[in-house]
């Protein structure tokens, strides 16, 4: 499967956050999430395993009881059901990979 960013509209999630569902199939899914400075990814959890790769920007992430600042090139792992969220400190883009797929995003 080939996915071209130009063919995928940005879903405006409000409050400075946008999402593009990229490649997905089988048990995996890739999602690009854009944040404006000051935008918040509220604390939440889900059944999915999640890897987040920071493509650009700076973020303050909380995963479970830990909070750290991350920037371009850093990667985060979230196990199923762990509470996590972020605050965007500098406009940026994240690449999230989920398994299984987030059916609620499709």
Describe the model.
- The chain is an all-beta fold and 106 residues long.
- It has one domain: Jelly Rolls.
- The protein is built from no helices and 8 strands.
- The model has no long low-confidence stretch (mean pLDDT 97).
- This is Cupin domain-containing protein.
What is shown here, in short?
This protein has 106 residues and is mainly beta. The protein is 0% helix and 63% strand.
- Please identify which CATH superfamily we are dealing with: Jelly Rolls
Could you say what the CATH architecture is? Sandwich
SSE sequence, one letter per element: EEEEEEEE
Q: What can be said about the biggest beta sheet? A: 8 strands, antiparallel
What percentage of residues falls in helices of 4 or more residues?
Answer: under 10%
Mean pLDDT: 97
The general outline is: globular
Q: Residue ranges: pLDDT <50 for 5 or more in a row? A: none
Helix and strand composition category: mainly beta
- Percent strand equals over 45%
Count of domain modules: 1
Query: What is the CATH T-level topology?
Result: Jelly Rolls
Number of helices: 0
Which CATH class applies here?
Mainly Beta
Give the N-to-C terminal Cα separation: 16 Å
Radius of gyration over all CA atoms, rounded: 13 Å
Number of strands: 8
Organism: Rahnella contaminans
Protein name: Cupin domain-containing protein
